[in-house]
Specification:
This protein has 16 helices and 15 strands. By secondary structure, the protein is α/β, with parallel strands linked by helices. A seven-stranded parallel β-sheet has the order 8-7-3-2-1-10-9. A five-stranded antiparallel β-sheet has the order 11-12-13-15-14.
């Protein structure tokens, strides 16, 4: 039975296309860094609501909110204390309702982050588990085990945290609990029915408040092999996600297990009970063929394509990734996804200019000086990469600030770093703060318009040049390029396939989208001739009618 659910004061969106997400452009907001309404230096929900007209003018279809739930920020909000409330520093549930109402008024969908692998150690369940003791029902909601060694002084296994060090933390009574991320993020036991029931309630809670979809954090880690004895992996390195290929598909002890899919089939029944159905997208760092399983119509429907983000600026490599991604998505009955930047990676304006083989972390530790990145060349390449991405069939996910061409802030002083990776790795990995620096809206002010006060991470003076105010209405600016491309994209979309040109020069990507338009991306170091057609938009000016290096063009056929 389909249940029509609306929230008082919100428009009924049920008449709109239930498959809107298949070729949508979705804008990721990291709430603490988008806009600050109350002047405390931390972005908030009212700040987002006040700036939604920026997204509407940009031309995106939806916004995705990274976590805004109560949290001590041990991991940037991904340590959730209450899944059905708003962090008081960011606002209230009424503020959230006002945000959704304004987004829907502007024609924008709203997607929220769901973090089901772990809670905060401050979550009421985990506090109950600590107080209840070994063998209790409260502890069964998490993964507690006795340690090894004569006195249980050794961790239960050699599993390692994604952020460095053991994935086990000992509590005063001697037992250990599992945390694949920080110790402040204890992993839930998804074999426990109370855990499953609580997340069903959470899905309904936000869906009833008008949310249009969910982004599922670490979607591949929920199911774990907890049968005794727990399996060692043999070395710390093998427990990292990159070691998935060393196991038969679906058999790693805690990543991408086959059992995880029954969880998402259960969720899909809930999401499909709404009109229109709620969409979902998986963050699943797994090989492409396995990733497609999460995107099946009876599961989440879509999954992030990280191969594209990780691909080098190389025509051959990008063509292979694009072709494979489209085939895998089609086989699953899903649409492909494309992303260049997000809250976890070096911004692509900087990253795409790093020489092949450069270690991102080593570059960050050097403050962005070894090697030095030519920001102008990086912006040119980033604009070309964006126009290429927006021409591809499927959904494009845009990270806040990339429409301004923001570079990575690689030279943040170590004393201001907030990412737990810095401390947890013993100052070996600098972390992700450089892509989370608050946005510049104006060319002046204590935080360049982010808020009436300062900002929780320092903004470099050069941010004034990238501010919305500096680019708004300026021909050729990156902001206007995004607006133009998104406006054209909405008019040109037709079908979910592309056809590669067989006669494109080496180093050039050229494909047709239906019989209406085509995309040509020049990844070489020299200008190339364009095929016949009316030029609709280019990422950089043409050079005597030719497509210059690191430049993409759309043409009407």
């Amino acid at each position: 039975m389909t249940v029509r659910t609306t929230t008082p004061g919100l428009p009924d969106l049920s008449s709109q296309d239930p498959h809107w997400w298949r070729q949508a452009v979705i804008y990721q907001i990291y709430p603490r860094s988008f806009a600050d309404a109350d002047g405390d230096g931390l972005g908030d929900l009212r700040g987002i609501t006040q700036r939604l007209t920026h997204l509407a003018a940009l031309g995106v279809d939806a916004l995705w909110l990274s976590p805004f739930y109560p949290s001590e920020l041990a991991d940037g909000g991904y340590d959730v204390e209450d899944y059905r409330d708003v962090d008081p520093r960011l606002g209230t549930l009424d503020d959230f309702g006002a945000l959704v109402a304004e987004a829907h008024r502007l024609g924008l969908k709203v997607i929220v982050d769901l973090v089901p692998n772990h809670t905060s150690h401050r979550h009421v369940w985990f506090q109950e588990a600590l107080n209840a003791g070994p063998g209790s029902a409260a502890r069964d909601r998490y993964v507690f085990r006795d340690g090894r060694g004569p006195s249980g002084e050794l961790p239960p296994t050699d599993w390692q945290s994604v952020f460095g060090g053991s994935a086990w933390q000992r509590v005063p009574d001697g037992q250990w609990y599992l945390h694949l991320f920080t110790p402040e993020q204890p992993d839930l036991n998804w074999e426990n029915e109370q855990v499953r029931a609580d997340f069903r309630t959470t899905l309904k809670f936000w869906s009833d408040r008008g949310v249009d979809g969910f982004r599922v954090d670490v979607a591949h880690a929920l199911a774990k092999d907890l049968s005794e004895p727990l399996r060692d992996l043999g070395s710390p390195e093998r427990s990292r996600e990159a070691a998935l290929t060393e196991f038969e598909p679906g058999t790693h002890p805690f990543y991408d297990r086959d059992e995880v899919h029954e969880i998402y089939r259960d969720w899909r029944k809930i999401m499909d009970a709404y009109t229109p159905p709620r969409m979902a997208v998986a963050e699943a760092w797994v090989p492409g063929a396995r990733r497609a399983l999460y995107a099946r119509p009876d599961e989440l429907g879509q999954a992030f394509n990280f191969e594209y983000l990780q691909a080098r600026w190389d025509a051959g490599e990008l063509r292979r990734v694009i072709t494979g991604s489209l085939a895998e998505a089609s086989a699953a009955g899903a649409s492909a996804t494309w992303v260049l930047s997000n809250h976890d990676v070096v911004r692509h304006t900087s990253r795409l200019m790093l020489p092949p083989g450069t270690d991102d972390n080593a570059w960050l530790l050097s403050g962005g000086h070894a090697p030095a990145v030519d920001e102008a060349a990086g912006l040119r390449r980033a604009r070309a990469a964006t126009l290429l991405m927006l021409a591809l069939p499927g959904s494009a996910y845009v990270y806040q600030g990339e429409e301004l061409g923001l570079p990575e802030v690689a030279d943040l002083p170590t004393e201001v770093l907030q990412d737990p990776i810095w401390e947890q790795t013993g100052h070996v990995r600098k972390g992700r703060d450089g892509c989370r620096v608050p946005l510049p809206w104006t060319t002046t002010g204590p935080s360049y318009g982010f808020g009436p006060g300062g900002s929780w991470l320092p903004q470099p003076p050069a941010f004034a040049e990238y501010a919305v105010e500096a680019q708004d209405g300026v021909p050729g600016s990156t902001l206007e390029l995004y607006r133009t491309a998104l406006r054209l994209r909405r008019k040109l979309l037709d079908g979910e396939t592309l056809t590669w040109a067989q006669d494109a020069p080496p180093g050039v990507l050229q494909f047709d989208r239906s019989d209406r338009w085509r995309c040509v991306a020049n990844l070489t170091g020299a200008a190339v001739s364009l095929p016949a057609g009316e030029v609709l938009v280019t990422s950089a000016p043409l050079e005597d009618g030719r497509l210059g290096p690191d430049t993409t063009a759309w043409l009407a056929r």
